[in-house]
Amino acid sequence: MRRRDLLKRIGTGFAALLLIGCTPTPALEVTDAWLRAPLPGKTVAAGYFTLHNHANRAFTLVGLSSPVAARVELHTHYLQGDMMRMRKLDRLEVASRHRIVLAPGGHHLMLFDVDVGLLTDTAQVTLEFADGTVLSAQLYVRNLRP
Known about the structure:
Elements: H1 3-20, E1 28-36, E2 45-53, E3 59-65, E4 69-80, E5 83-89, E6 92-94, E7 99-102, E8 108-114, E9 122-129, E10 134-142
Parallel strand pairs: 1-10
Antiparallel strand pairs: 1-2, 2-7, 2-8, 3-6, 3-9, 4-5, 4-8, 9-10
């Protein structure tokens, strides 16, 4: 093999390795997603995840849906006097280069009229943002009953 061909192949391989490391990070990412399955005889479930904003601008979550529930809402817990209460949120802003954690005792999803017959080991939730961005997330279902 001629030296020029060898150098060309080495250069092509090096360029390919550089491109592999250049996979763009998505603007929004959901991690640690899970759903607490409804209690026996109930049709309400709670969902949790971390929403990462890798972009240089804020995103505002304004809508939620799931094929396993008639309605999905964003809720938060707050302390009123000595009692924890829950209220619905219409929107949730994720600042540029920040993350929002949805966890028990704080922000979380509420899924209403869950069709438990559709629940498997995961449940899909679609997140809709004010700018038209749509993000799909798989929540791992915990506490499934037999």
